[in-house]
Specification:
The chain is an alpha/beta fold and 515 residues long. 24% of the residues lie in helices and 27% in strands. It contains ten helices and 27 strands. α7 packs parallel to α8 and α9 runs parallel beside α10. The strands form six sheets. Strands 1, 2, 17, 20, 21, 22, 23, 24, 25, 26 and 27 form an eleven-stranded mixed sheet that branches. An eight-stranded parallel barrel has the order 3-6-9-10-11-12-13-14, surrounded by four helices. Strands 4-5 form a two-stranded antiparallel sheet.
């Protein structure tokens, strides 16, 4: 049994109580007397790009659609997102952002020019979903908008005018243009990305060139009265640590956040990534192993940021993460449509725990993407909608939003496959503003249940309740014909014994407990 402390210290006196625990079990000390940083609600953020059927048919069907809608937005999707308490939503991309010209998406819809989406599927879009539609959606659902500027093919003037259009209350050209299109009051737009993947589809720039461009664009992104912009620079692709170093050195004093993109591929091969269902245990294991690499990335990028920003004033914003598989057979390869199984829910929960662990530096994360694309929380097909296992993981974990992280010391058996192994159990805990303590647990082992014995320090549990997400098969998933194959259920496998919490954690499961 390999020790897997989630923080770099031990609780020897409490752990001594576990000396008689079987080697196949896990032990945990929940230290409510040692609170950590607040888990920013924006860690549970989402991403919506003009890609496939994410926007069109996924969120937006138009006011004349026979699909039940409110002002063009699907009623079923609105209700699902409201229940999820989505805190922040990124738009319009992604690679799409750096070819998007915002003035094409305002004014009467029938007069808007169409555009060719060269990145995703080679389709023509009618621009019916633009600035007003996105910001009104966020306002309807109480979501913070996160807007990405076009640095790749746009201009500084275009970016400057977009910020004015969205946020200025003055009698000025762009604010008056907004009023002419039916919106008098400016929107509140806090989060602003200065370009996307500028090292790749956003311009194939060097970090030095992008840092200079970031400073230039950022200069002209103005704060209007009480709207204070939170400025996010384009950060590295996965493990490009030099990019982070250059950006922090050359522009760190001008930013609030630095982005990071990391996708989980079962195979690690972009040409043949692996399937979303019908996979063997080898792909289950490799997917979870690769997902856990997020911890190393965040740790190493944070260390570079610490060198230039020891006070941690600049946040690490993981604004693209999730699984990426081969597209479903028979679908447009450029639409990135994939099924979503129990494995994806496990992936989501593991990432949440990693973000919690680094909550002093990671203050936002955005799963890619919200509807019908990659690791989405919702799938639609014409009038039908289904919630994915990943949706249910987000819904179960929303208790951690804006809660104070609590130290946990975990000793877990390994889940071994072949010659490799990963921790079988992952854990995280928090205390919400009402004083309730929540403990989330993941069992990555697809075959074996594990007993987790949890000692408590700084909190006394008088009762315990919980929910579980699991299924019979590793690739269990929800379809339009069978939408409830994977969904949360009440969990009765946790009990209090002599002041400890004892959890019978089933194989391949996610459990969230409330003490």
């Amino acid at each position: 049994m390999t020790p897997r402390p989630l923080f770099a210290f031990a609780a020897f006196a409490l752990m001594a109580a576990f000396s008689s625990v079987r080697a196949a079990d896990a032990t945990l000390v929940l230290r409510a007397d040692q609170p950590g940083p607040v888990i920013n609600r924006n860690i549970y953020g989402h991403f919506s790009e003009h890609l496939g059927h994410c926007i069109y048919e996924g969120i937006w069907v138009g006011p004349d659609s026979p699909i039940p809608n409110t002002k063009g937005y699907r009623n079923d999707v609105l209700a699902a997102l409201k229940a999820l308490k989505v805190p922040v939503l990124r738009w319009p991309g992604g690679c799409f952002a750096d070819e998007y010209h915002w003035k094409d998406g305002i004014g009467p819809r029938e007069s808007r020019p169409s555009m060719f989406n060269s990145h995703w599927g080679g389709v023509v879009e009618n621009n019916h979903f633009g600035t007003h539609e996105f910001l009104d959606l966020c306002e309807m659902l109480g979501i913070e908008p996160y807007v990405c500027l076009n640095v790749g093919s746009g201009s500084v003037q275009e970016a400057m005018e977009w910020v004015e259009y969205m946020t200025s209350p003055a009698s000025s050209p762009m604010a008056n243009l907004r009023r002419a299109h039916g919106r008098d009051k400016p929107w509140k737009v806090t989060y602003l990305a200065i370009g996307n993947e500028s090292w790749g589809c956003g311009g194939n720039m060097t970090p030095e060139f992008y840092a200079d461009n970031y400073r230039r664009y950022n200069t002209f992104a103005k704060n209007y009265t009480d709207n204070r912009l939170y400025r996010v620079a384009c950060g590295p692709n996965s493990n490009d640590y030099n990019w982070t170093d250059v950006l922090m050195k050359n522009a760190g004093g001008h930013m609030n956040g630095l982005s990071l993109h990391m996708y989980t591929l079962p195979t690690g091969d972009w040409k043949k990534k692996g399937t979303s269902t019908g996979f063997a245990e080898a792909e289950w294991f490799s997917t979870l192993r690769n997902t856990l690499g997020m911890d190393e990335l965040v740790t190493k990028h944070s260390a570079i940021m610490d060198k230039y920003d020891p006070a941690k004033k600049v946040a690490l914003i993981v604004d693209e993460w999730g699984t990426w598989y081969d597209v479903e057979p028979g679908t447009n390869p450029g639409f990135l449509f994939q099924q979503n199984s129990l494995r994806d829910a496990i992936v989501a929960a593991l990432n949440f725990h990693i973000f919690h662990k680094h909550a002093d530096r990671v203050t936002m994360a955005n799963i890619a993407q919200i509807v019908n694309v990659l690791q989405s929380v919702i799938l639609t097909d014409k009038e039908k909608m289904v919630l994915t296992p990943t949706y249910h993981a987000f819904e179960m974990f929303k208790v951690h939003q804006d809660a104070t992280s609590l130290r946990v010391d975990l000793v877990t058996p390994d889940y071994a496959f072949g010659s490799e192994k990963i921790p079988a159990v992952s854990a995280s805990a928090s205390r919400d503003t009402a004083g309730k303590v929540h403990l989330s647990l993941v069992n990555t082992d697809p075959h074996n249940a594990i007993t987790v014995t949890c000692a408590l320090a700084g909190v006394e549990a008088k009762s315990i309740s919980g929910r579980i997400l699991t299924a019979d098969a590793m690739d269990a998933h929800n379809t339009f014909a069978a939408p409830d194959v994977v969904k949360p259920a009440a969990f009765s496998g946790a009990k209090l014994e002599a002041g400890k919490v004892v959890v019978a954690l089933p194989a391949k499961s996610v459990v969230v407990l409330e003490l």
